[in-house]
Write a structure and sequence with these properties.
The protein is mostly helical and 114 residues long. It has helices at 2-23, 35-43, 59-65, 78-99, 102-107, and strands at residues 47-51, 68-72.
């Protein structure tokens, strides 16, 4: 009988926790940057944001146009997608004003959002 009462008591206490956990709409994102992303930001150069697996080495493009390419995860949220599009459009505008369309041929791919 004691075990039954204890079980019911613990079960009742756990339900308010589930209800509160489901009502929260807040999303927290913790990002830890490693490898090339950190190196690009330390060089203080603009960089295109791409998603997926790195297709080729862009070191020649980075040296010629002082613009890097950062590859991120394959999973894309709407917020990250919007940020990447805005970033890539701004960089593309600057490169087009400065170099014309030649940079597009040298890059060898279409940046996300263009």
């Amino acid at each position: 009988m004691k075990n039954c009462k204890l079980f019911l008591f613990l079960t009742i206490l756990s339900f308010p926790g589930f209800a509160l956990a489901q009502k929260s709409d807040e999303i927290k994102i913790h990002m830890i940057q490693k490898g090339k992303k950190t190196a690009l930001r330390q060089e203080n150069i603009p960089h295109f944001i791409q998603f997926g697996i790195m297709s080729k080495n862009h070191d020649d493009f980075k040296k010629k146009y002082h613009t890097g390419i950062t590859y991120q995860n394959c999973v894309i949220s709407s917020a990250i997608s919007k940020q990447a599009k805005e970033n890539n459009l701004a960089i593309a505008k600057v490169l087009t004003e400065k170099y014309g369309d030649a940079w597009k041929k040298d890059l060898g791919m279409i940046p996300y959002g263009l």
